[in-house]
From TrEMBL:
Protein name, as recorded: GTPase Der
Keyword Repeat: yes
Record's subunit section: Associates with the 50S ribosomal subunit.
Species in which this protein is naturally found: Prosthecochloris marina
GO MF assignments: GTP binding; ribosome binding
Length: 164
C-alpha cells in the first residue's frame, strides 16, 4: 500500500488548494466559502519518484468558528489512517482556538507519526515573521508556504517523502 498523507486543519486554511497543487487534480472543490469541500477526497501523487496518496478533509461546516461533528470525525479518521499529517493553519487569520483544538487532537491521537505544521498564505516576508506565532501549537518547526503561489511546497514535499 502507498503511504497516505492527510491534510487537516480548520475550514478555509487552504487544504483543498494544496491538495489540488500536490495531486494536480480538480477533484477537490475549492471556493471562497469556508467548508465548501464536502467529502474526503483522495488522489494519487508523486514526488521525488515516490508515489503516495493524499487525503483532503473538509466536511460540512457552515460556520467559520465551529468544528462540526462530521468534520471532527473526518479529521479523526484521517489521523488514524494517515502515515503523515500536514496540519495546516492560515497566517492571515493568525492562531485561533480551533487551531489549538486541532493541535491538541493531533498530539493525543497521532503520537508516533510525523506531523508537519504548514503555515499557509505566506506571500511576504512580513507574513513569514508573523507565522512564528504558530509555534505556540507545540509543533515547533513551521513550514511557510503559499498553496496558491506554490512557494515552499517543494521543500515541504522533499521532507515529507523522506519520512516514508
Ligand atoms: P480549505 O477550506 O482548507 O479547503 O481551504 P480552500 O483551499 O478552499 O481555500 C480557502 C480560501 O483561501 C480560498 O479563497 C482560497 O483561494 C484561499 N487560499 C488558499 N490558499 C491560499 C494561499 O496560499 N494564499 C492566499 N492568499 N489565499 C489562499
Ligand atoms: Mg476544502
Amino acid at each position: 500500500m502507498k503511504p497516505l498523507v492527510a491534510l487537516v486543519g480548520r475550514p478555509n486554511v487552504g487544504k483543498s488548494t494544496l491538495f489540488n497543487r500536490i495531486t494536480r487534480s480538480k477533484s477537490a472543490i475549492t471556493d471562497s466559502t469556508p467548508g465548501v469541500t464536502r467529502d474526503r477526497h483522495m488522489a494519487q501523487a508523486e514526488w521525488q519518484g515516490k508515489q503516495f496518496m493524499v487525503m483532503d478533509t473538509g466536511g460540512y461546516c457552515h460556520e467559520k468558528d465551529t468544528i462540526s461533528t462530521a468534520m471532527l470525525e473526518q479529521t479523526l479518521t484521517a489521523i488514524h489512517e494517515a502515515d503523515a499529517i500536514l496540519f495546516m493553519v492560515d497566517v492571515r487569520s493568525g492562531l485561533t482556538y480551533l487551531d489549538l483544538d486541532m493541535s491538541g487532537m493531533l498530539k493525543k491521537h497521532f503520537r508516533d507519526k510525523p506531523v508537519y505544521l504548514v503555515v499557509n498564505k505566506v506571500e511576504s516576508r512580513q507574513l513569514a515573521y508573523e507565522g512564528e506565532e504558530f509555534r505556540k501549537t507545540g509543533f515547533t518547526e513551521p513550514w511557510f508556504i503559499s498553496a496558491r503561489e506554490g512557494t515552499g511546497v517543494a521543500d515541504l514535499l522533499d521532507e515529507v517523502v523522506l519520512s516514508f
